[in-house]
Write a structure and sequence with these properties.
Helix content: 25-40%
Domain GFO/IDH/MocA-like oxidoreductase: 133-256
Order of helices and strands: EHEHEHEHEHEHEHHEEEEEEEHHE
Organism: Nonomuraea spiralis
Distance between the termini: 34 Å
Keywords: Oxidoreductase
Radius of gyration: 20 Å
Strand content: 15-25%
Oligomer: single chain
CATH superfamily of the largest domain: Dihydrodipicolinate Reductase, domain 2
Number of domains: 2
CATH topology of the largest domain: Dihydrodipicolinate Reductase, domain 2
Structural class: alpha/beta
CATH class of the largest domain: Alpha Beta
Strand order of the largest sheet: 14-13-12-11-7-10-9-8-15
Protein name: Gfo/Idh/MocA family protein
CATH architecture of the largest domain: 2-Layer Sandwich
Shape: globular
Domain Gfo/Idh/MocA-like oxidoreductase N-terminal: 8-124
Largest sheet: 9 strands, mixed
């Protein structure tokens, strides 16, 4: 069923909300940004001034607004479950920032409730919409490097300022904080989408920078995919180089290297003597991730655009939100391994 010009309300008016709002404004011919919600009065005032939308300080008031057909939840992780259920119980469409919820059980429950409610539901996992990874997905389908036997990801950022803030929710495990929770969910989703399910993994984590909080700032999770491929995912939140991502895939007939700080971003190498490789020119170089033209910013714009277009056109979005739910199973297995010091096997 197609939907005529839905109205959107954004709950949670932090940094990423501005990119979501910019996407809705770009699509003003098919969607209306009608409201925002946040407990911080400074955030609501700034949102109204910039986007001209009404604001609320109570989520239920946003949900009950008859102009709001779609709720875009961009909240701290520990609030996802209750907020998502409230939206779904009201029969409103839902786009939910990753990770789905702090636990795999809650993530499954949200997905099931969305299916029961018959609403248009999507988890906003921008990795699916990053141009470089879309090119990689195409290359793998074409068999460009044969069978993948080793995959490696690395995600880095500098969150020292945020992680130094007293009481900041990302510094507490009980509030859904943790590097593997926040950042690992991206890599685990990406590998699930590209290569399939995980078989077994081992996780290690460290605090390498002396910040007064309980969470890890550096971690590695490695193991075996069900396909037999080995994988390794590295993460850090205390990097003194720009926020970026890498992906390396090594196959039986070649390899693919992705680096958002390199130009070209994606190169394919067809064998050990292919020293030049092939640049994938369809992927733009935009290393300043969080600003227009940057790889992260543009992926979020594309993600929100796909959600709205798929709602209006009556089709599923490109992303399979079930893969984002599965990523939370991998997150939990990684923390189980980190805490126990043992390898964890994931059920099929």
């Amino acid at each position: 069923m197609t939907v005529s010009k839905p109205g959107v309300g954004i709950a949670g008016l932090g940094l990423i909300s501005k990119t979501h709002a910019a996407a809705y404004k770009r699509m003003s011919d098919v969607v209306d940004l009608v409201a925002g919600c946040d407990v911080n009065p400074e955030a609501t005032a700034a949102f109204t001034a910039e986007f001209g939308a009404k604001t609320y300080t109570d989520l239920q008031d946003l949900i009950d607004d008859p102009r709001v057909d779609v709720v875009d939840l961009i909240l701290p992780h520990h609030l996802h479950y209750d907020a998502a259920m409230a939206v779904l119980d009201a029969g409103k469409h839902l786009i939910l920032e990753k990770p789905v919820a702090p636990t795999y059980e809650q993530s499954v429950a949200i997905q099931r409730r969305a299916a029961e409610a018959g609403v248009h539901f999507m988890v906003a996992e921008n990795s699916r919409y990053i141009a470089a990874y879309q090119a990689v997905h195409r290359l793998l389908r074409e068999g460009a490097i044969g069978e993948v036997i080793h995959a490696r990801t690395y995600l880095r950022s500098n969150e020292k300022a945020h992680l130094s803030m007293p009481g900041y929710w990302r510094t507490q495990f009980k509030l859904g904080g943790g590097l593997v929770m926040d950042t690992g969910a991206h890599s685990f989703y990406l590998l699930k989408w590209l290569l399939g399910e995980f078989d077994e993994l081992t996780g290690v984590s460290k605090k390498v920078f002396p910040l007064d909080n309980e969470i890890e700032d550096t971690a590695e999770v490695y193991g075996r995919m069900r396909s037999g491929a080995h994988f390794s995912c590295g993460f850090t939140s205390v990097s003194e180089v720009p926020h970026s991502e890498r992906l390396e895939l090594f196959g039986t007939e070649g390899g693919i290297l992705v680096d958002q700080m390199s130009d070209p971003v994606v190169k394919v190498f067809r064998g050990q003597h292919d020293f030049l490789g092939e640049a994938i020119t369809e992927v733009p170089f935009g290393p300043d991730a969080w600003h227009p033209g940057g790889w992260h910013y543009e992926s979020v714009i594309t993600e929100v655009t796909d959600y709205v277009r798929s709602l209006v056109e009556g089709r599923p979005p490109l992303i399979d939100s079930g893969d984002t739910v599965y990523a939370m199973r991998v997150v939990e297995a990684a923390y189980e391994s980190i805490q126990s010091g043992k390898t964890v096997t994931l059920p099929a």
